[in-house]
TrEMBL record:
<comment type="function">
    <text>Plays a role in differentiation and/or proliferation of mesenchymal stem cells. Proposed to be involved in epithelial-to-mesenchymal transition (EMT). However, another study suggests that it is not required for EMT or stem cell self-renewal and acts during later stages of differentiation.</text>
</comment>
<feature type="domain" description="MSP">
    <location>
        <begin position="17"/>
        <end position="110"/>
    </location>
</feature>
<dbReference type="InterPro" id="IPR039283">
    <property type="entry name" value="MOSPD1/3"/>
</dbReference>
<keyword id="KW-0256">Endoplasmic reticulum</keyword>
<dbReference type="InterPro" id="IPR013783">
    <property type="entry name" value="Ig-like_fold"/>
</dbReference>
<feature type="transmembrane region" description="Helical">
    <location>
        <begin position="196"/>
        <end position="216"/>
    </location>
</feature>
<dbReference type="GO" id="GO:0000139">
    <property type="term" value="C:Golgi membrane"/>
</dbReference>
<dbReference type="Pfam" id="PF00635">
    <property type="entry name" value="Motile_Sperm"/>
</dbReference>
<keyword id="KW-0812">Transmembrane</keyword>
<protein>
    <recommendedName>
        <fullName>Motile sperm domain-containing protein 1</fullName>
    </recommendedName>
</protein>
<dbReference type="GO" id="GO:0005789">
    <property type="term" value="C:endoplasmic reticulum membrane"/>
</dbReference>
<dbReference type="InterPro" id="IPR000535">
    <property type="entry name" value="MSP_dom"/>
</dbReference>
<dbReference type="InterPro" id="IPR008962">
    <property type="entry name" value="PapD-like_sf"/>
</dbReference>
<keyword id="KW-0472">Membrane</keyword>
<keyword id="KW-1133">Transmembrane helix</keyword>
<keyword id="KW-0333">Golgi apparatus</keyword>
<feature type="transmembrane region" description="Helical">
    <location>
        <begin position="165"/>
        <end position="184"/>
    </location>
</feature>
Amino acid sequence: MQQQHRQPELVEGSLPVFVFPTELIFYADEQTSHKQVLTLYNPYEFALKFKVLCTAPNKYAVVDATGAVKPQCCVDIVIRHRDVRACHYGVYDKFRLQVSEQSQRKALGHKVVMATLRPSASQEPPSPRVQDEERRIKEHLAVSEFFEQTACHTESRPAAGGPSLLTVLLGLVCMAALMLPTLGEQESTVPVYLHLSINKKLVAAYVLGLLTMVILRT
């Protein structure tokens, strides 16, 4: 009889997790470094669910802290440092990426990624000092309490109270300008000095488009 090949039962915590890079370094004087990308790879024949935990969730914003990775695919996880202050220089935080099968809740494996904030890339030594390396290793091996990024499944923004009165008034002026007759129209009851050229209407339409974007974002 032909035997059916069954997927072996996976033990909790035994599945290797492949993440790159294995360490995140943010630089205070480089705005572009405040956003880092973690790439999670799934080389297996089955889909994986993932969850990102952190020892200092208030310092970071994680876009899509939970999600899924298709078999033999990868997914990018964007992490932003949102508390760039001198008091955080040299402090090592940890991110833990937990993975599990989509049909199960237990974590099949996890990977810890270290994160630290440094003042400047120009001050980086050519090679890490022994004391710094020992400290990093101790931080990596230390038992830490991880927290969920509950408020950061999407990038958080401070709540706004709606568009300002000036924005609304400027939008109404642009709409009124677009409704006025174009310069050169003969059959119009509107005074000639209120007729606008095509260029002025194009400017009004452009400004109105920008104002619409601002209002939708608020």
